Amino acid sequence: MKNVPLIFLIFFSNLIFCQVIEENKDMDMYLKDVISRDDVYQNDIDIRIKYINDFDKNILINYQNLPEEFIKKQTKENLEIIKQIHDLYYEKVSKMEKEFNYNQKFTYKQLTPKSRINSLLLIDELKNYPDSYSILYSDVLVRFNDKDFEKKMDKLFNLSKNYSVEISKLRLEIDDFKRQFLNKPMYYPIWEKQEVVSYCSYIDIVLWCYSNSSLNKSLSK
Q1: Smallest Cα–Cα separation from 91: which of 157, 46, 141, 164?
Q2: In whole angstroms, what is the distance from residue 32 CA to residue 30 CA?
Q3: Does pLDDT of 212 surpass 70?
């Protein structure tokens, strides 16, 4: 179980919320029953909306210049490593989104309204600000497919940690902010060490900076 990224368990639990329909079961009764139990997602939805909204308005908005400043000071070699990890992260998030869209389109009766909303918010959250622990670090296949993955992650960690006081300040603000949402569906398993969480939080900042830099936007055109 530890080898399965918890973020995927959260995501796919929304997609398999309903049981397989028996051939002899009345469809209308089935849908009514499923929708009546759909309210279990309401609390998650409320928390995610507040989290995403407050994170943007209270934290990230105060660091709008940081992405450009940080990326411009990186060497060509460093930028290549950052881009590789950045692209890998968003490739995996995109795969999650496509999986969700497929299920919504072809197995929509398995997806209740609030579970769909919860999944959409989760995807938006992962796009808006990276979660390298959930998407990359906890995925053993990533390490298997790239023998230099850990070296690259270490590189991003060191770039972030040694860059400036501003990044350290941002990381602390993010940590303090997240403590206000202890009831938010978490991606960090209870067995994970705090130093690992901290390690990934530095990497998240690098990915966020690259994602919001003019360099990435120009390459994306």
Answers
A1: 141
A2: 5
A3: yes
Tell me the Ramachandran region of residue 26: left when phi exceeds 0, alpha when psi lies from -120 to 50, beta otherwise.
beta
Q: From the CB of residue 71, how many other CB atoms can be counted at a distance below 10 Å?
A: 20
The three-class DSSP label of residue 197 is helix
- What is the spatial distance between Cα 107 and Cα 78, in angstroms, rounded to a whole number? 43
Query: What pTM, to 2 d.p., does this model score?
Result: 0.80
Q: Taking Cα atoms as reference points, which of 216, 209, 219, 211 lies closest to residue 67? A: 209
Q: Is residue 78 within 8 Å of 155, Cβ to Cβ?
A: yes
User: How far apart are alpha carbons 189 and 5 in whole angstroms?
Assistant: 9
C-beta atoms surrounding 163 within 10 Å:
19
Name residue, tokens 């230099």: 148
Residues making up the chain, counted from first to last: 221
3-state SS, residue 15:
helix
Average pLDDT over residues 179-201: 75
Question: Residues 93, 5: contact at Cβ < 8 Å?
Answer: no
**What are the backbone dihedrals phi and psi of residue 101, each rounded to the nearest 5 degrees, phi first?**
-65, -35
Residue 101 carries which side chain, given as an amino acid letter? N
